[in-house]
Amino acid sequence: MAEVSNELIYGVLEAIQGRPANIEDRLSAVEMRIDALAEQTRALTISHNATNTDVANLYRMFGTIDHRLARIERRLDIIEEPVK
Fold it and tell me: Whole-structure pTM over 0.70, yes or no?
């Protein structure tokens, strides 16, 4: 078995001491990536909500147009029997 000297112990302790700094650097990089993903998620949520609003507005407009068209057909007496 190799003889354990103070230099050997000091070398091992130096190697161990560098690991937390490496872990902290990597953790900081992971936190930045998570923050970027959170920001992208917020942007997608805003875009999704805007799309839902646009679709709701289109449904409302089509409903209004459909109502007006039915009124015009009734006034012109050109209503056909509904398809069954």
Answer: no
